[in-house]
Amino acid sequence: MSDSATSRRSRITPEREAELYGAVLDLLREVGYDALTMDAVAARTRSSKATLYRQWGGKAELVVRAMHSQKPGSIADVDTGSLRGDLHTIIGREDDCVMAENVALMRALAMAVHQNDDLRQALREWLVEPEVEEFRRIVDRAIRRGEVRADCPALDYIVHMLVGAFATRTLIDEQPPTQAFLTSYIDAVVLPALGVAPAD
């Protein structure tokens, strides 16, 4: 985060920030990204629009930072001693209700990402690139343990596989992603692709 962003954000309390983020995510689910306005956020949170722009710069950063706030900590900190254990633990950190809510958020952003460069850039900066880097650290540990070959061609696609399963479950099966579905997917698809036996 830049020094200016840190300075801006330090002017409100963490509790107030969490309240604002919750309201933004509620609005995003209700009306979608394009119809979400800073005026609506200001009204919902009893804030001035000037304060919102001063703190976040614009709608794209506010929305993505709100989504980032829902992450239950860095996945790179998960270290169970096996890749299978790490991936199952990561999936287990969010219950099925939270996953369903996250799918709704992804749906709200899906079309908007293709039409808004500022949103796409904010998503890459705050969510995509950090998540990919965290997965790299997890996989690097698996390589050092000898679980995965360093030249395994599937290594470059682990995030694609997991995000794809999460995002397309509803479209293909007309059901939300669940812990049971994703852990089964990890054992049946992700681990075999990486050359890892699904059972410890």
From TrEMBL:
Q: Which UniProt keywords apply?
A: DNA-binding, Transcription, Transcription regulation
HTH tetR-type domain spans which residues?
A: 14-74
Checking SUPFAM superfamilies in the record gives: Homeodomain-like, Tetracyclin repressor-like, C-terminal domain
DNA-binding region ranges: 37-56
Chain coiled-coil ranges: none
Q: Which InterPro entries match?
A: Homeodomain-like_sf, HTH-type_TetR-like_transc_reg, HTH_TetR, Tet_transcr_reg_TetR-rel_C_sf, TetR_C
Domain of life according to the entry: Bacteria
* Record flagged with keyword Amino-acid biosynthesis: no
The name on file for this protein is TetR/AcrR family transcriptional regulator
